[in-house]
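job 3f2a | input accepted
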Amino acid sequence: MPRKGFLRFSWILAALLLIAGLSSAQQARYDFIISGAHIIDGTGAPWVAGDIGITGDRIAAIGDLRKASSAKRVNAANLVVAPGFIDVQGQSEFNVLVDNRVASKVSQGVTTEITGEGDSIAPVNDRMRKEGEDAARKYGVTLDWYSLADYFQHFERTKSTINLGTFVGAGGIRNYVMGENNRPATPVELDQMRQLVAQAMQQGAFGVSTALEYSGHLCLYRRNR
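job 3f2a | predicted structure (225 res):
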């Protein structure tokens, strides 16, 4: 086939496939459709008007779905549909275990939280777990984790409505090794802290966070007391 003829054929084929895809999307059945929304895709491109078809927990189609069927259709005229927002300094690592709906986040459009500022939910030892027993008992949370890997397994079982990532907090690591003693760490203690941080990083921590202001307040309080 001559090159021009091949290119013309390729364009025709592409157009037919696009039409077939649109037709298939129109005829498909979805769990629910968000219709007439101002859709923002998160890339920085201008919004476009259209419909979004949802199947299960996945976006199955975006476009003109007026002829498609669904169990439920949500009218989003004059409303914006956008990727979920990320709260980069949240503190809900315990709260998400109490109520997996996390309504205070989701109602603001937050679907991912990054936590672990200065302190983190793990790692913890027996002493630290005992200190948290009263709060856990009050809210019906089982303290069944020591490491960050243990915590993530617990978090997965809750089927939370949001995603969660965490740093490993330097304050928590110091507390794990030294308690609240206001003194410099020994070389042996520093080495133990390094090992705990390395383990947390291997288990999914994004990095190490510090909040030195809080440690300063703690030391000042203890000196004045």
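job 3f2a | The chain is about 40% helix and 25% strand.
job 3f2a | closed
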